[in-house]
Design brief:
single chain; 71% helix; mainly alpha
Amino acid sequence: MARLRVWLLETRPSFLLLTPIAYSVGLASALFEGYSRPLNTLLGLLGALLAHISVNVLNDYFDYKSGLDLRTRRTPFSGGSGILPEGLLDPERVYLLGLGALLVGFLIGVYFLLTLGLQLLLILIPAALTVYLYTTHLSRWYVGELFAGLNFGPLMSLGAYYLQAGRIGGMPLAAGVVPGILVGTLLFLNEFPDVEADVGVGRRNLVILLGRRRASRLYALLIASTYLYLIASILVGSLPEPCLLTLVTLPIAYRAVKGVLANYDEVPSLIPAMASNVLLVLSATALTALGLALAVLL
């Protein structure tokens, strides 16, 4: 039982909550337009969770192999699981777990390709490449934050919608931008504690490029842009008015931004802001999905 628990912890289960919440944005978009396929919903969610598990596990493996895990200051939100540096699991078996999760997720994708059409490749190919190449390539090219946002935002929303409607639609794309920006900031902020360690193993991200001070200002700008985008999308009719519910997260956003601007260079003092940011990402994404669902009733 203890061994099973270690394997479970290796998948970073506390981070997996993001997947069903982001997935629900696409589902709610489909529901708004009258589409509902329960079996596809469950199978698609399983595939999305397997992809998330794969990227978590492979990231842990490659960070261990590069020596990054031995350099980082672990926080509740960054620095890896700590399982491989402590010798609790065999690294090569962990690598196989990551590949296995990716393979099963790929097979689920093949099933949907056969039943719903090849247009789904436009979503599946970039998603699969990001899962496998994130740590080894994307995190070294200053685009890790962008691809994380794309995968948990527009791509996941479009994918969930496609499994219901059998086509790509405008509303899930518009709605998916909200979690897309927010998830990008989630990764972005979680990079602040590891700047020196990341440089040492050849990683290249926006925090390294800008420095923590300027990066903290970019963080504030990205958070503000999320709300401005949401309001603009509602005004032009891309999103329904109930999505204004997302604005109730503004106090959380203010707390996170204030903490980052004040403590960008002090990791222990930054942790409460990182916690607020996680809460912001999850709650704002969930409320965007809820707004879409409520629009069905109005």
